[in-house]
Amino acid sequence: MGSDETLAEGPGGGGRESGSRKVTAIVVEERPSAIYQVVLDGQQKVLAHLVGAVKRNFVRLVPGDRVEVELSPHDLTRGRITRKL
Fold first, then answer.
1. Residue 50 pLDDT more than 50?
2. High-pLDDT (> 70) share of the chain, %
3. What is the dihedral of CA 58, 24, 42, 45, to 10 degrees?
4. CB distance 69 to 84 below 8 Å
5. CB of 28 closer than 8 Å to CB of 37
């Protein structure tokens, strides 16, 4: 079937990826489909989308807002916005 890690998560994967890391960033641009271009503190540009809790609470983001981004362990140019700071 799969590795022990996959079985421990259960169906659907559930939960956060273990290798992701959280960083702070500034929103630069809003793109279609709730995708945002953000700049990390190290001047790296990343495309990030909103997580469910942020969407559910109708949090509005505009260029210049500081946010917390959880980077993908597989592709460091992609991430998820987990909260507005």
1. yes
2. 79
3. -20
4. no
5. yes
- Among candidates 61, 18, 68, which has minimal Cα distance to 40? 68
As a whole number, the mean pLDDT across the chain is 83
The torsion angles phi and psi of 57, rounded to 5 degrees, stand at: -90, 10
pTM for the full predicted model: 0.75
Q: Say how far apart CA 7 and CA 25 lie, in whole Å.
A: 34
Interacting residues of 84 by C-beta distance below 8 A, sequence separation 6+? 54, 59, 61, 65, 66, 67, 68
- Structural tokens at position 11: 């169906």
Q: Which fold has domain 18-84?
A: OB fold (Dihydrolipoamide Acetyltransferase, E2P) (2.40.50)
Tokens coding 49: 């989308």
pLDDT of residue 7: 42
CA distance 7 to 54: 29
46 and 40 Cβ atoms separated by less than 8 Å: yes
